[in-house]
Description:
The complex is a heterodimer. Chain A is α+β, with helices and mostly antiparallel strands. In chain A, about 20% of the residues lie in helices and about 35% in strands. A six-stranded antiparallel beta sheet of chain A has the order 4-5-3-2-1-6. In chain B, helix 2 runs antiparallel to helix 4. By secondary structure, chain B is mainly α. The termini of chain B are far apart. Chain B is elongated, with a radius of gyration of 27 Å. The interface between A and B is medium-sized, with 19 and 24 residues.
Amino acid sequence: MTAKVLPKRGAVYWITLNYIDKPAEANEKHMVVVVQSNEMLKHAREVNVLEITSNLRDVNARYNVFLPANTLTSKHQTADSKIKCHVLYGVKVDDLLNGEYCGQIPDDIMKEVDDAIIFSLGLLED
Amino acid sequence: MYKIEEIIEALLFFAGSKDIKTKIVKACYLLESEYFDKTGQRLTDVEYKYHLYGPYSEAIVTSMMNDRNILYIPQTSMNGNDYDLFKLKETSVISKIDPLTLSLIEKWAKIMQQKTYDEMVNLAYSDKNFKKTEKGKVIKFESDFLRKKQLLKKRVKEKFKSRKLTKEEAEGLKRAGNEDLIRYSRSLLRESRG
């Protein structure tokens, strides 16, 4: 199924994540959330995403954000999940468009994601 | 930070080479105000004071008078009032200015070109930094960008308190890396088995 929704910040897609560090999962599909700014998304061909997983280990760590089951409209998110904010992945916009659109993360959870990224990347530190 | 001469030359360049002193001063001020609002940094080191006819800086007038690239032409209007016209002779500053600044300069140059003297003065009167200043005092610039950044910083600081990872968090990070390795080795095993 092809995603018809153009990526915007907070959008979730079900895609094949072909990143080098995880060759084991080269053919596995993952849910990812777009964290690139909407302004950048107007022009960028590659965007930053975070992985969503149903593995709830260390979900309370400050670099993870809890995503309750069925927050998204997709059939892929029927279990409680976490957004892993400690690793940012770069994917091609085409990969997102070839994947399946799963819905939009609510604003309050995106705020949590923002904070976790700030913590993880050490932004705003003196 | 740029020299005020460079900003004035660029303003006149985009505004069609000449304009009157007051409009140039107001355009410089409004440009400075918007630049600070957007970036949290000053564009020039010029100090503006609250004058009866809006923000004013003697440094701008002195710079224009001393700039060899700008021609000073004293004029008298039909009503007999004197006014100062400044005309750009030549400039090489455009290539030295960064694109964001250049786009803001172009915007204010076009506004300066289109607005009348009274309209430019009214625009300067309505500036938020000017409104907050007392008569005769130096105008202090405030930035939405900086304010938002400080608020965010405060919120994140309160939320996380310590930047250090807890023992559990540190172990969790190590484990996350290991899980990937384990999955990788399992997939290799699956592949080798065909």
